[in-house]
Design goal:
single chain; about 325 residues; alpha/beta; 2 domains; 6-stranded mixed sheet; 13 helices; 6 strands; about 50% helix; flat
Length: about 325
């Protein structure tokens, strides 16, 4: 699969039934969640080969018993982790193909037969990109122009349920006091160091009140270490063994990281300002600046830029100034 969810740690999170339950109860329609008996969750995740896309993909697949109108049936939850930077507008086509391949897998592994029929599937796309999701959610909506009424019944239909992390506000996530909502909060705050610390504090408080605190702490700690590593955080991850027990150490590390990034940002700002000043003075005194000069300016440190800003007062040409 094109998604890079292997690096996010989400695949591990959703290998635990409680996180699948938190996803459905917290972010899927309540009328669906209310029908499910989460004590019957069964993991079916595995590797599948898709001939159309010529790729091997690993998706999160669970089944759960659903009861309605006095009838109990097992429904498959097909969770596609879509963690690419760009929105994939072919998602309806991809998902229809994945579901077809999964049905084929169920037949080959004798989970069901053609005579018994195919079990219902709830396709879920979990997306955490910065841009809002704009792809169609039903493959029927991709059929353009809309066919006449006598052909509509012959067109394919498959609608997935979208969970777009970025569309949930901090207030909305705060109403969902689950470890998974805490994970989403940390994802959203990744570019805001102060917000990141606040999100970490929130998830720690959630873990501390969880009846399975030790188990959840280990799971979330492993996920957070992987997440901070992806962010390039200068945090001593080897010493982070428990988010609850090591929260003070982590807070200090995150504060030091934030301060260092702030200092580096200020230094970059001063460098950019010095470069702009030098370019302006060069242009005023000598006209258009050659590309080789631009390259040297871009590579120069602050001390060199200050030196050139002094040299320009006495230089008679660009070549003289840059010792060409």
């Amino acid at each position: 699969m094109a998604s890079n969810h292997h690096d996010t740690g989400y695949k591990e999170l959703f290998s635990y039934p409680e996180f699948v339950q938190q996803l459905i109860e917290g972010f899927a329609p309540s009328e669906i969640a209310d029908l499910m008996d989460f004590s019957t969750l069964k993991n079916h995740s595995g590797n599948y080969i898709t001939p159309l896309f010529e790729e091997k993909f690993e998706d999160v697949v669970w089944s759960v018993e659903v009861t309605w109108e006095g009838m109990t049936q097992r429904v498959f939850l097909y969770i596609l982790l879509e963690f690419q930077s760009a929105v994939d507008r072919t998602m309806p086509i991809r998902l229809m193909h994945y579901v077809a391949c999964f049905y084929s897998h169920l037949i080959k592994t004798k989970v069901t037969t053609v005579g018994q029929g195919m079990p219902p599937i709830l396709p879920i796309v979990l997306y955490n990109g910065a841009k809002r999701w704009t792809a169609k959610q039903d493959i029927y909506d991709m059929v353009q122009p809309e066919p006449p009424s006598f052909l509509q019944v012959n067109q394919p239909h498959l609608r997935y349920y979208l969970i777009d992390e970025g569309r949930y506000t901090d207030e909305e996530l705060g109403l969902r006091q689950t470890p998974l909502s805490g994970v989403f909060s940390i994802e959203k705050a990744s570019t805001d160091r102060k917000g990141l610390q606040k999100a970490v504090d929130r998830i720690v408080s959630i873990i501390q009140t969880d009846p399975h605190k030790d188990r959840i702490d280990k799971i979330i700690t492993r996920w957070l270490k992987r997440h901070l590593q992806r962010l390039g955080a200068e945090v001593n991850l080897d010493q982070l063994n428990s988010l609850v027990e090591d929260k003070d150490m982590l807070a200090e590390n995150l504060e030091n990281w934030a301060q260092k990034e702030q200092m580096e940002g200020e230094q970059r700002g001063r460098l950019d300002e010095a470069r702009d000043n030098l370019r302006a003075q060069l242009s005023f005194k000598f006209g258009d600046v050659p590309s080789w000069v631009e390259d040297r300016i871009d590579r120069a440190d602050h001390a060199q830029l200050k030196s050139w800003l002094r040299d320009i007062l006495f230089a008679n040409s660009v070549d003289e100034m840059f010792n060409q």
